[in-house]
């Protein structure tokens, strides 16, 4: 890994377990929502996180920003172990790591104007600012995310879905973070405006040098937006590679199955897709340790009788 800049985010052996209660309310065992997950995100990089519903994507997103701290494992952000920070230091750190969620309407406060909602970021982080200075900063943020600053006094219901997500993005970038977790940020939007929001995220990345953890079901969008992609299966990473390598040469049966559900325009990949569909659904994805199968391309290799 020589020549690489140090990672912005280094996640090691992250696990999140939830207590499982029996249906009559007794104590049960634990449910391993995420188990032994490790990855880095480099400065200016977008890492895609894909996997079926319930595979643990949002759990990882909330764990790396400590919104829902992990059961075990370490998260180092800009070289600092987040578990070692006290509440005040963590709050300062939060200004550097933000989250954009799937449903902007749920994230917004219906009784707060869009301008006040964005300005709240400064207040929460106790940035001393005069009123006029704050209004100017919010107007600048509105312009930056493609919203007319004259709409600052409007309320959430007076915006379209895409505009609401732009408001959430404006608030997320207000404190000039270096990292944003985007958890299905376009899934609730009309297809016609999904690309606009993705392009906005890309423009902001270019301008601000942002890194993203981009959580998505949309494998085509992931390929378009992400530099590298991690495939999650039942709380474990089964494959992690550069996006081009993952889509052109998926190694893990689960990745192949996931990609087989997406039609692709390239003839060679289309052949691979059709071949992968032949993997029977009852075939359990193998669950060995991640092995480097090609430079920078990691996959959990088959083990045991399924190999
Ligand atoms: N607070 C909780 N208590 C118990 N189990 C939980 C809790 N939060 C999540 N889980 C479980 O952890 C697993 C992973 O959930 P998570 O929300 O991370 O999945 P996901 O990959 O984001 O799914 P989706 O694509 O549907 O958003 C699920 O089985 C879920 O039921
Ligand atoms: Mg989720």
Automatic annotation (TrEMBL):
GO terms for molecular function: ATP binding. Gene3D superfamilies: P-loop containing nucleotide triphosphate hydrolases (3.40.50.300). It is found in: Cell inner membrane. Keywords: ATP-binding, Nucleotide-binding, Transport. It is a peripheral membrane protein. PROSITE patterns: ABC_TRANSPORTER_1, ABC_TRANSPORTER_2. InterPro entries: AAA+_ATPase, ABC_transp_ATP-bind, ABC_transporter-like_ATP-bd, ABC_transporter-like_CS, Oligopep_ABC_C, P-loop_NTPase. Residues 280-307 are annotated as: Disordered. It holds the Pfam family ABC_tran. Residues 9-259 form the ABC transporter domain. It comes from the Bacteria. Belongs to the ABC transporter superfamily. This is ATP-binding cassette domain-containing protein.
